[in-house]
Design goal:
With 128 residues, the chain is an alpha/beta fold. The protein has a single domain, classed as Response regulator (Rossmann fold, 3-Layer(aba) Sandwich). Helices cover 46% and strands 19% of the residues. It contains five helices and five strands. The protein is globular and about 30 Å long.
Length: 128
């Protein structure tokens, strides 16, 4: 488990910090990043095993970033999960169509977050 790297991409540093702390306490390598121009290069260098992406990213927005990640050679294989408090059903549909693997609604329970990540990575390994 400790070898799994998880990146939390969010403009909300507090929320990202809480999520990272939960994941680190469970034995994962977790770090956060604020989406900025050129961030994909930094993400590629991090070589994450999973991306947790906030639904409410500033322009160009989450859907555009998902599409960009799915087109980028070094990140196309990385599982991507969108998280958000106000995701409507149509937002979930658009996210999945853009390339997200799953969408999780917040607020999150720390134990449920860890269990979901663990289950998702376990399934990904079984199919990888």
């Amino acid at each position: 488990m400790a070898n799994h790297k998880i990146m939390v991409i969010s403009p909300d540093r507090y929320q990202a910090g809480v999520m990272c702390a939960c994941l680190q306490n469970a034995g994962y390598q977790a770090a956060s990043a604020v989406p900025v121009e050129g961030a994909l290069d930094d993400l590629c260098l991090q070589n994450p095993d999973l991306l947790l992406l906030d639904w409410k990213l500033p322009e160009p927005g989450s859907l555009a970033l998902v599409k960009l990640i799915r087109r980028d050679g070094c990140l196309t294989h990385v599982p991507l999960i969108l998280t958000g408090t106000d995701m409507r059903e149509e937002d979930v549909l658009l996210s999945l169509e853009a390339g997200a693997d799953q969408c999780w609604r917040e607020p999150f329970n720390p134990r449920v977050l860890v269990a979901r990540v663990r289950a998702f990575l376990r399934r990904d390994e079984a199919h990888g």
